Amino acid sequence: MTSLRARIALLLVASIVGVVALATLAVVSVVRGPAPEATIEPVARQIRLLAQSLPGHVASANDVQIKLGDQPAKGQEDERATRFLNRALEHSGVAFPATVVRVEGKPGMVASVQLRDGRWMAVDIPDFSPPANRWLVLSGWITLIVLGATAVSLYFATVLTRPLVMLEAAATRIGPDGILAPLPEEGSGEVRATARALNQLSSRLKSAMESRMRLVAAAGHDLRTPMTRMRLRAEFLADDEDREKWLHDLEELDRIADSAIRLVREEVDHDAVEPVDLERLVRDIEAEMISLGHAVSIGHLDKVSVKAGALGLRRALRNLVVNAATHGKGCSVALSAKGGHAALTIADRGPGIPPDLLGKAFEPFFRVDPGRRQSVPGAGLGLAIAKEIIERYGGTITLENRAGGGLSQKVVFDAVS
């Protein structure tokens, strides 16, 4: 009962049932029949008059059927009505023993009064008590009200919370690029207003993302010209040591600019999605890494395919393997297919990443130790680019430190059957 729709529906049901119950109670209290105490007095007076003036045979007086016999009328005794009748006869001044019974299949009740000569006089009397199945009728009435109120409440709760449901659905459909999928502007006024606001937000987000990408691409491109001039000037330095330092720094700047441009291209350029044989792709990357001198080994590989762009996925996995082989002093790659998912694990033998920095590892230009810039080439964009590509194709990537030392990079995709 944590959702807003359920709470609104419960509130409406409780309100409707409460109001109907109070109204029903008020109506019943106004129109209900007279109490037995009020109706038994005239019946007792009539019985007293009949008993005092009754002839010695069966008679009919004032449409009241009278029967005489040695025994009272047979049936199921109504103790409450019997008690009221005896009390009323005592109040009338004649204490005739009396009993009231209900006869199956016969409307009303039968009152039996013992006369002074020992005979019993049986008289039909009306029954003003509520029906025997009144609780069943009341239960059916309440059940009908609850069912009707529940249906109406659920409908209006759904209508009231539809804009919130739309917000939730739109948030879950946010793509890897952070852009909201367009929503149809139809339905009630509130729903149309919500859809229009979300579409405007999506448009502004898209404009901001494109502006950011253009800025990064332009900055990376514009850096090339002054860097070329600086490289030419460095070539003419007389001191060999200074010249090497300048050229080393310029090479690092060039890698940063090139990585920034590649990151923008990955966010803009999307290759065609198709089934990709992940096992074959991993073996190709392994062969390439070994040819480049990286310490990469292959563990168990299952035969499995995933839906992705072949070039983009190759670039992402290559970045992860290069990152592990470079910073982790070699790595091992394993691939498993289970439960409709393909899980690729890249485990290295390096120092790992401090736990408080694991969440920042995918940020652009992230480095655990800035001092690594002197010994390990790269701009710190490899993981950011890999994450962008993997999430674009519906995959996930997580990092965790291994118990025996080193870092484990795990990539999970939905497998293609």
UniProtKB/TrEMBL annotation:
Say where the protein is mainly found.
membrane
The entry's keywords: ATP-binding, Cell inner membrane, Cell membrane, Kinase, Membrane, Nucleotide-binding, Phosphoprotein, Transferase, Transmembrane, Transmembrane helix, Two-component regulatory system
Q: Where is the Histidine kinase domain?
A: 218-417
Span of the signal peptide: none
The entry's protein name is histidine kinase
Cellular location(s): Cell inner membrane
Q: What membrane topology does this protein have?
A: Multi-pass membrane protein
Membrane-spanning intervals of the chain: 135-157
Chain ranges of the HAMP domain: 158-210
- Which InterPro entries does this one have? 2C_sensor_his_kinase, HAMP_dom, HATPase_C_sf, HATPase_dom, His_kinase_dom, HisK_dim/P_dom, HisK_dim/P_sf, Sig_transdc_His_kin-like_C
E.C. number(s) listed in UniProt: 2.7.13.3
Query: Which reactions does this protein catalyse?
Result: ATP + protein L-histidine = ADP + protein N-phospho-L-histidine
The answer to whether keyword Disulfide bond applies is: no
Which GO molecular-function terms appear in the entry? kinase activity
Species source reads Mesorhizobium robiniae
